[in-house]
Amino acid sequence: MTLQEAQQQVDRWIKQYGVRYFNELTNMAVLTEEVGELARVMARRYGEQSFKSGEKDNLDEEIADVLWVLLCIANQTGVDLSEAFARTLEKKTRRDNTRHINNPKLKQNGES
Hints:
Elements: H1 3-17, H2 24-45, H3 59-77, H4 81-96
Helix pairs in contact: 1-3, 2-3
């Protein structure tokens, strides 16, 4: 599925089941909430915290929830994520094409 197809699928779902999009500010708050839920799972899976009784290790679900809200925000603000992502990839390539390769902090196992 492409980003464009994902945006279209979310739009169809909203129109069929969701009544309407939440307003932009509400969706920004929902995105913040979903990122927090993702952070909680990451802290427990990869950090020093442990899962509480009844908590799920549902990293895939939380990442998908973040993507869902991003797709909603893109749709309601008229952003074509395929085009925007292509521009971001080009920008990062232009700006950082040697930055990380030359970062000694990123060298593995003392490689030079």
